[in-house]
Amino acid sequence: MAKKQQAKKVVLAYSGGLDTSVILPWLKETYGYEVIAFAAELGQGDELAGIKKKALASGASKCIVKDLRREFVDEYVWPMLKSGAVYENGYLLGTSIARPLIAKHQVEVAHAEKAIGVAHGATGKGNDQVRFELTFMALDPSLQIIAPWKDPKFKLTSREAAVDYAKKHKIPIDQSKRKIYSRDRNLWHISHEGADLEDPANEPKDSLFVMSQPVSKTPAKPDYVTIGFHEGIPVKLDGKLTSGVKMIEALNDIGGKHGVGQIDIVENRLVGMKSRGVYETPGGTILTTAHSALEDLTLERETAHYKQQVALKYAELVYYGLWFSPLREALDAFVNMTQRNVTGDVRLKLFKGRCTLAGTKSRNSLYQMDLASFKMGAEYDQMDATGFIRLFGLPMRVAGLVDRKAHKNGK
């Protein structure tokens, strides 16, 4: 009797939602894979409750859950915060920055389990497919990449088809309520897409918000918080040493209470189309505002201006899924150099959806009151400005003379 061939193993990025719940048994049924489910705890609330039981009931041979919150903050969020990266004037990259971390650990699980491939449930229209697959390629090009949504055999591309498949295969799915929006949540943010948001003319409903209050329902009195930074990294909250995870959680609570960090944008996806999303990033907005204010105080002009250009590129690298690229690592070296003096305290006022500065101080401050004051002193000789302006404006003066001469000759 011929020995039964052992099924090849694949590691599926598993969320427990409808899509990955049907993809799991579909991979077994269609290709005969042994599927190992992998889930990352990134601060998504109660979404992982019962996920191991659900994965095993859906046909997984094993479900591995890793708590990656600390690594997420220390090795991904903080470097991004220091860089100043913001995509297209508003998006603080909450989903983008999490994907390479998930994919990295997926690769590690694949190695440990001797799997031949890694799988994900991202569609062929979004950015996540790129972020997952570029990370797989960077960390182990030998692994087979399995993306069912781009497989011609995969026909479960509507909710109705997926639900029917789940019922037929006795896959446990939550049918008590239908998800109105496509959402992604972690410590840094939550995103909302789809349904009525697909029309940019529609105002987001108050019922949409999860991490924060609608501005109309926020308190009538403000709250204040003080963030202490050391070399660009937030280390203190209201004077107390606080871990990154605890700090973001606390700022999400107080920022959410005041409706801070809600944005509604139409962004340019990497795959070419525009998409509309509503994002809640309460703690991230507070920290980004504070960090930027402290840099204003401690970075000299040329470095500050050049860093703005770097921030734009850094945001693109994160959004495009190029976290494990040599360029990102090189930019980190530049950013870390700029952060040596970004140490100090920033006080912020949270009120009616806004996060505004209420005071900044640093022992490394480049703001010198004697120089900045309107009072005249020995530190600044105004007569020097005459020669400076003449030299600075010399090219314009020469061009003006030539232009005037040409104008006269033309007459």
Overview of the molecule:
This protein has helices at 18-31, 51-57, 69-83, 94-113, 128-139, 159-168, 244-257, 282-298, 301-319, 326-338, 369-372, 384-392, 394-410; strands at residues 9-13, 34-41, 62-67, 117-119, 144-146, 182-185, 190-193, 223-230, 233-237, 240-241, 262-268, 274-280, 344-351, 354-361. Helix content is 42%, strand content 19%. The chain is built from 13 helices and 14 strands. The chain has 411 residues and is of the alpha/beta class. The chain folds into two domains: 9-179, HUPs (Rossmann fold); 183-299 and 342-361, Alpha-Beta Complex (Argininosuccinate synthetase, chain A, domain 2).
Outline: elongated
Structural class: alpha/beta
Strand content: 15-25%
Q: Based on the coordinates given, report the CATH architecture of the largest domain.
A: 3-Layer(aba) Sandwich
Distance between the termini: 105 Å
Radius of gyration from the alpha-carbon trace, in angstroms:
26 Å
Assigned CATH class of the largest domain? Alpha Beta
Order of helices and strands: EHEHEHHEHEHEEEEEHEEHHHEEHHH
- In helices, the fraction of residues equals 40-55%
Major pleated sheet: 5 strands, parallel
